[in-house]
Every structure is written in structure tokens, then in C-alpha cells.
Design a protein that fits this description.
It is built from one helix and five strands, in the order αβββββ. The protein is mainly beta and 114 residues long. A five-stranded antiparallel sheet has the order 4-3-2-1-5, with no helix packed on it. The chain starts with a helix and ends in a 27-residue tail after the last strand.
Length: 114
């Protein structure tokens, strides 16, 4: 194992729960405004998850005041305070880009039954 791989393994977070595309999650992100820091909650559906070591990301989509908002979070970033899973979704594909075209009730995802 070379030095670069060792550094990446060292910087990876282990406290992020295992979620999949289709799940509704609540991301608590640290926002710095000037010299003040606060935590902002972003709740939405995971539409994509990109694998990797330290460069892994996930995209969360929500509809705010009738406008779709997507935000890409680096999985191992120190700006993420914590991630909570709200509901598990039942979907049949890994990338849910088709949700961008759907509106209202059509954009809902069925909940996974255990």
C-alpha cells in the first residue's frame, strides 16, 4: 500500500450510515458565515451515489417552494456533521435522474417494507 492510499484511508469517515439511492435522508451540514458557524439541515431523496475512496459523493434532491433543489455532498467531508436516514425507498435503478422530470405525486418513491 503506497503513501497516497494510506492517507486516503486515514481521512475516510466511518460514522456515515449505509444509505442507497431512493432513501430519504437528512444531512446536517456545517455552514460558515463570516466568523460564525451554524448547522443547516437538508432533507431530500438520494438520487445518486458516486463511489470512491475520499472523493465519494452523493446527491440529494428536495423540492423547496415548488422548485427542485439538488445538492452534492462529499461523503467524507468534515463539513457534514451527521446524516440521518428518514425512510428507505424501493427503487429499481441506481441513478434516479428521472425524478427531475416528474412533478407532484408522480415524484413519490414507494417505501421499502421490511
Amino acid at each position: 500500500m503506497d503513501v497516497l492510499e494510506m492517507l486516503q484511508k486515514e481521512q475516510m469517515r466511518t460514522d456515515i450510515p449505509d444509505f442507497r439511492p431512493g432513501d430519504t435522508i437528512r444531512v446536517h451540514a456545517r455552514i460558515t458565515e463570516g466568523d460564525k458557524e451554524r448547522i443547516q439541515v437538508f432533507q431530500g431523496v438520494v438520487i445518486r451515489k458516486r463511489k470512491g475512496t475520499t472523493d465519494a459523493t452523493f446527491t440529494v434532491r428536495k423540492v423547496s417552494y415548488g422548485i427542485g433543489v439538488e445538492r452534492i455532498f462529499p461523503s467524507h467531508s468534515p463539513t457534514i456533521d451527521r446524516v440521518e436516514i428518514v425512510t428507505r425507498g424501493r427503487v429499481r435503478r441506481a441513478k434516479l435522474y428521472y425524478l427531475r422530470k416528474l412533478r407532484g405525486k408522480a415524484a413519490r418513491i414507494r417505501e421499502k417494507r421490511d
